[in-house]
Write a structure and sequence with these properties.
The chain crosses the membrane at residues 20-39, 45-65. The protein is α+β, with helices and mostly antiparallel strands and 768 residues long. It has 6 domains: 16-82; 87-178, Beta-Lactamase (2-Layer Sandwich); 185-266, Beta-Lactamase, CATH 3.30.450.20; 280-452, Beta-Lactamase (2-Layer Sandwich), CATH 3.30.450; 466-624, Histidine kinase-like ATPase, C-terminal domain (Heat Shock Protein 90); 651-767, Rossmann fold (3-Layer(aba) Sandwich). Helices cover 38% and strands 24% of the residues. It contains 21 helices and 30 strands. It is flat.
Length: 768
């Protein structure tokens, strides 16, 4: 390889005549100065010679400086060009006027390692059939215009060859691969069906890998490939390949700019030219459709994918749906060549399961009649993943909305029920207003239960877990469940003889079981049997179901089985979605199973559903087994409660941004004898505590407030008052704060809405 070592760019040298002129000027100056000394010429002649000689020396110095600057500038240009070429991802060569390669970059050395020649034409012969003609044509244009480029179709695809004329007569050549993309925007090389692009004159412009593999080589025109022209679209054509003639089904797709796409599949040639049997056995799901929508023919794979025995007298709109616009418009636009040749995702009209297909519609001409070829591709997995992502986003958004609404309602309910408690302190049962106050109080409690459902759905409710034996829980619930199912339905309980305990909120667990039983009852309008079975299972390894993984370990399962109508397979995956229901309007809200899902997940369990249409449905609940620990400390604490001192002295700093809640809590604590300091924000509370003489025993603070939140200001305050007790209150759940969850010593959590007694008892327990 010719050129500088470690550089793909040859040296630029200052021309020899310039150096000769510089040397001659210096020599002449020396001779003139010497002559003034050697010959006895008059002084004025000697001084003149010396002056001329010095002038020539100055001129020579200026010439040397200019030459040095030119050399430095060319060196900088060389370095810049060298760096650009060396880092270029495309193969680059520097060649002289005769095509001899002076240097090449690493990309060129790697790409043409097997065809390394001294000339550019010899190197590119591995890519171009006649590189000399192309190189001469481009080099001639580069001499005239300074640069030139040309796109050339090769056996490996499109190649862009460009050349730039450099100073000194050298040429910089670049070889760049151009990726051919189909009309759908994907690389045509990835299509498994043989495909070629043909120009107006029958020249083959492009062939994908599948086509080259079938034919055995790349052809330049259709007359070298097909025995009979023109090509008969939708029929069997004879093709010439490297292994001999073959029979192939050919489909022609008309594109813009005078280009056509030919798709062809090899057949056994046993059928006639129309090839109906061959069409049916094509290895790709195909439909032939009239522009009006009637299905003209369909192959076996398409029938299997659509789940039908035949498509006689059916239109495409009856087989699939979900286009978003009339199917007839799409078909008519494609037949007229107005619609872009892109794929559409549609849902098949199947009742056994939900199937999505990617439909690519192409226009073809058979015997002068326009038909449409629909290629189907099963896209169920893709659409399922997309639906799961959308559903997760929707669940998250609705959960945040439900949690926010519940938080605001809890503040309102705290104020309503709290002030109702204050009124009840001044009215006894003989008072005429006592009954109205009780009604307000009970309805406030009902509203609180509704809010807890919203929080359960968003998994932000406050649970009160306790150790439960499911046999006792179901036994207490049996009477109510029997009343719910009615006389036509029989309720049967079956328990594992060796039952293990679980830890859950009893009230919420009862709500889940009642919801499942009511749904089972509604699924059997003619009556039947509902079975509730409990069992202890030990998993040796994790099990995966419905995108959830149940870890190995001991679990208590509860199964609720019915003999009802069952759930359609395409609806089974949606039963836990909020507001989704299979019941008629007015018979269900669609929140029951989504609420149950939230409760079970917050408890640390799992819920799954299995159903067979017409045979019944089975819901399975997994609860982790509770490892019983010694609870003597709690028992001792409960015994000491009776001897604890009564309400009395103590200073409480109450921090609450909601004025009605703050007013109720302040009055409730003062009625029990406490001294209450009020603050409407965390900043006000910290300013109050700046007084070193102020003694505070308990902080009662909201968690979520404008500005600084509750845990943040409490941590700041405890730096100077480390022994102060804390009561956090919030309309959210205790475990719904993530990283901001209160992690403060000597603190307890009181969920909203709370009653007068709950607030005062909590403060009392903290003080004592």
């Amino acid at each position: 390889m010719i050129g500088r070592q470690n550089s793909p760019v040859p040296d630029f040298r200052v021309s020899a005549p310039e150096n000769a002129r510089l040397a001659a000027t210096v020599l002449l100056a020396i001779m003139m100065v010497s002559a003034s000394w050697l010959f006895g010429w008059p002084d004025w002649v000697a001084r003149g010679l010396i002056a001329v000689g010095l002038t020539l020396v100055a001129v020579a110095a200026m010439m040397a400086a200019q030459a040095r600057l030119r050399i430095r500038a060319r060196a900088m240009a060389t370095d810049l060009l060298t760096g650009f070429i060396e880092k270029d991802a495309s193969p680059s060569f520097v060649a002289d006027d005769d095509g001899v390669i002076h240097a090449r970059n690493p990309a060129a050395a790697k790409r043409f390692a097997d065809a390394e020649k001294e000339t550019l034409a010899g190197t590119l012969r591995a890519v171009l059939a006649n590189p000399s003609a192309v190189l001469f044509r481009l080099q001639s244009r580069a001499r005239a215009d300074g640069a030139a480029q040309e796109d050339v179709i090769t056996r490996r695809g499109h190649v862009r060859l460009s050349v730039h004329q450099m100073h000194g007569g050298s040429f910089l050549w670049r070889v760049e691969d151009i990726v051919e993309r189909s009309s759908t925007g994907r690389n045509a090389e990835s299509i498994p069906i043989p495909l070629m692009t043909v120009g107006r004159t029958g020249a083959v412009l492009f062939m994908n890998e599948a086509a080259r593999s079938l034919i055995g080589s790349r052809v330049k025109s259709l007359d070298r490939l097909f025995v009979d022209l023109p090509v008969r679209s939708g029929q069997i054509n004879t093709m010439t390949t490297a292994n001999g003639p073959i029979q192939a089904m050919v489909v022609e797709n008309t594109r813009t700019q005078g280009r056509n796409e030919l798709y062809f599949l090899e057949t056994d040639g046993a059928e006639g030219s129309e090839g109906n049997t061959t069409f049916e056995n094509l290895p790709v799901p195909f439909l032939k459709v009239a522009p009006s929508g009637e299905v003209l023919s369909v192959n076996k794979l398409a029938l299997a994918l659509m789940g039908v025995a035949n498509c006689n007298d059916k239109k495409l709109g009856q087989l699939m749906e979900g286009l978003g616009r009339p199917m007839s418009d799409w078909l008519r636009d494609t037949a007229d060549g107005l619609a872009p040749n892109k794929s559409e995702f549609l849902r098949l009209s199947r009742r056994d399961k939900e199937v999505f297909v990617q439909v690519t519609l192409s226009r073809a001409v058979e015997d002068g009649v326009t038909v449409l070829i629909a290629v189907l591709n099963d896209a169920t997995e893709l659409k399922t993943l997309e639906a799961q992502f959308v559903q997760s986003q929707k669940m998250q958004a609705i959960g945040q909305l439900a949690g926010g609404v519940a938080h605001d309602f809890n503040n309102l309910l705290t104020a309503i029920s709290g002030h109702c408690d204050l009124l009840l302190l001044r009215h006894d049962q003989g008072d005429q207003d006592y009954g109205d106050l009780i009604q307000i109080h009970e309805n406030a409690n009902r509203a609180a239960a509704l809010v807890s459902q919203l929080l359960a759905f968003s998994r932000k409710q406050t649970l009160l877990p306790e150790v439960l034996d499911l046999r006792d829980t179901l036994s207490d619930l049996t009477h109510l469940l029997n009343r719910l199912v009615g006389e036509k339905v029989t309720l049967t309980l079956s328990h594992d003889p060796v039952m293990r305990s679980i830890r859950a909120d009893k009230r919420q667990l009862e709500q889940v079981l009642m919801n499942l039983v009511v749904n089972a009852r509604d699924a059997m309008p003619q009556g039947g049997e509902i079975r509730i079975e409990t069992e202890v299972v030990s998993l040796d390894r994790p099990i995966e179901r419905n995108r959830a993984t149940v870890p190995a370990g001991d679990w208590v399962t509860v199964k609720v089985l019915d003999e009802g109508e069952g759930i359609d397979p395409d609806k089974l995956q949606k039963v836990f979605e909020p507001f989704y229901t299979t019941k008629r309007t007015g018979e269900g809200t669609g929140l029951g199973l989504s609420t149950a899902y939230g409760i079970i997940k917050q408890t640390g369990g799992y819920i799954f559903v299995d159903s067979i249409k017409g045979s019944g449905t089975e819901f399975t609940l997994y609860f982790p087994v509770h490892n019983a620990q010694v609870l003597q400390a709690k028992s001792a604490k409960s015994k000491i409660e009776d001897t604890a001192p009564k309400h009395g002295e103590g200073v409480v700093l109450l921090v609450e941004d909601e004025a009605p809640v703050r007013a109720f809590a302040s009055r409730a604590l003062r009625l029990r004898g406490y001294t209450v300091l009020e603050a409407e924000s965390a900043e006000d509370a910290l300013r109050t505590l700046e007084d070193p003489g102020l003694s505070v025993d308990v902080f009662v603070t909201d968690v979520v407030m404008p500005g600084m939140d509750g845990p943040s200001w409490v941590r700041e305050a405890l730096k100077t008052r480390p022994d102060t007790r804390v009561v956090f209150v919030s309309g959210y759940a205790e475990g719904a704060f993530g990283e901001s969850q209160p992690n403060v010593p000597n603190s307890v959590f009181l969920p909203k809405p709370f009653s007068l007694n709950q607030l005062t008892e909590t403060v009392h327990e903290q003080l004592n």
